[in-house]
Write a structure and sequence with these properties.
The chain is an alpha/beta fold and 402 residues long. It folds into two domains: 181 residues, Rossmann fold; 202 residues, Rossmann fold. Helix content is 33%, strand content 23%. It has an eight-stranded mixed β-sheet with strand order 12-11-8-13-16-17-19-20, sandwiched between helices. The longest helix is centred in the middle third of the chain and has 16 residues. The radius of gyration is 25 Å and the shape is elongated. The site of cytidine-5'-triphosphate has 15 residues, from α11 and β16.
């Protein structure tokens, strides 16, 4: 999602400046280019060399430096970025921004930034008493009204030892806010649509302490739910057991077994126009679920019975819905995936080659091929599951309603 995006990261003089190094790293990892501008006070907390090493770009710190080769560096820097972030943003910086003052490079370049045109995210960080100061509050309110987004600071122990509100939002959360701002700037193309996503493994109980399951972590489905929500969809997420934090704003239904998932999906799918089934549903369950713990004996033979094929069932009554399935394969990827697409009456299938490193279950990335009903195949490079989620949604949007 952040590929080819340029983010200007302003750093002002607060102890949280050390966290902006982590934010830059996360942005770069997500595919963005990061241009850092630091204030004089920020230089007391973190060095330009740190930021230059992380971003691979020169770091700008002053309005007048002949080495920059431009007398209008404040304007040049304001032209390129898709988004502006200031983290940490001190009370002083917020005050200058609210008052329209430009007495250093960062504040001056912001005079050339229009928050209605390109998103701006400010991450205030300061002592609680400063944060509660009516003048500071008034400044923040004024900035909000002008279209600046402020990341409400966390409460906790502050650098001065006080406990209260004022800690800068963690870099991982800032990254998420940046993504959301960039996505909404690009348009909420799923607004008005309901997307049902299934995620994670299922667990098939054997007795009160044991179950049969698989290696699915739920990451792919959660990334799809998050991405669809960011793009404006109403998202229904039916998820087997995972250790993941649910994405904000989605209607989540945790389930355990394939039969639970089947029941919930059949209840909910009529509301959805698009169904994406990324769950790794167990095809079989133990024929008996013992009420008591099975005691060990000499040998144990398990009898398994078939679970319902949820996707196939939806496929047979899909009407105008757009159905996306996943195929996890260890051999004959395309042939098997295409056979599943036809058998389950799907519009698209995401074929996962489990044999490749960096693909499949319980890893952060995936390498897939997208197969379409009209016979087309698109092989995608290795990418994060979140980026892949957006790619899948791009293709679904192109095809849906055709
Ligand atoms: N699926 C489902 N219900 C099942 C099994 C699978 O809805 N009982 C869905 C999965 O969520 C996935 C697709 O069907 O979107 C393909 O799953 P996969 O396990 O790859 O295929 P199967 O149909 O189970 O075939 P096989 O295990 O023989 O490869």
């Amino acid at each position: 999602m952040l590929k080819n995006k340029i983010v200007l990261l302003g750093i002002t003089g607060g102890i949280a400046a050390y966290k902006s190094a982590e934010l830059a790293r996360l942005l770069i990892k997500a595919g963005a280019s990061v241009q850092v501008v630091m204030t004089d006070h920020a230089l007391s907390f973190i060095t330009p060399l740190t930021m230059k090493s992380l971003t691979g770009r020169p770091v700008y710190t002053s309005l007048f430096n002949p080495a920059y080769g431009s007398a209008t560096i404040h304007i040049d820097l304001a032209r390129e970025p898709h988004m502006f972030v200031v983290a940490p943003a001190t009370a002083n910086f917020l005050g200058k921004l609210a008052a329209g003052l430009g007495d250093d490079l960062l504040s001056t370049l912001f005079l050339a930034v229009e928050p209605q045109e390109r998103p701006v995210l400010l991450a205030p960080a300061m002592n609680t008493a400063m944060f509660e100061n009516p003048v500071v509050r008034e400044n923040m309110e004024r900035l909000r009204l002008r279209g600046f987004e402020l990341a409400d600071p966390d409460a906790g122990t502050l650098a001065c030892g006080d406990v209260g509100k004022g800690r800068m939002v963690e870099p991982s959360q800032l990254l998420q806010l940046i993504r959301e701002k960039l996505v909404s700037a690009a348009g909420v193309d799923y607004r008005g649509l309901t997307v049902l996503v299934t995620a994670g493994p299922t667990r098939e109980p054997l007795d009160p302490v044991r179950f049969i399951s698989n290696r699915s972590s739920g990451r792919m489905g959660y990334a799809l739910a998050r991405a669809a929500r960011e793009r404006g969809a109403h998202v229904i997420l039916v998820a087997g057991p995972t250790a993941l934090e649910p994405p904000p704003g989605v209607e989540l239904y945790p389930v355990v077994s394939a039969r639970d998932m089947h029941q919930k999906v059949m209840e909910k799918f009529p509301q959805a126009q698009i169904v994406i089934k990324s769950a790794a549903v167990a095809d079989y369950r133990p024929a008996e679920n013992s009420q008591q713990k099975i005691k060990k004996g000499r040998a144990l033979t398990l009898k398994l019975v078939r679970n319902p094929d949820i996707l196939q069932e939806i496929g047979s009554s899909k009407e105008k819905r757009f159905l996306v399935g996943f195929a996890a394969e260890t051999e004959n990827l395309r042939t098997n995936a295409r056979e599943k697409m036809v058998r389950k009456n799907l519009d698209m299938i995401v074929a996962n080659d489990l044999g490749q490193e960096g693909a499949g279950f319980a890893v952060e990335t995936n390498i897939v091929q997208l197969l379409f009903k009209d016979g087309r195949v698109e092989a995608l490079p290795r990418m994060s599951k979140y980026d892949l989620a957006h790619c899948i949604l791009d293709r679904v949007k192109e095809q849906y309603g055709r």
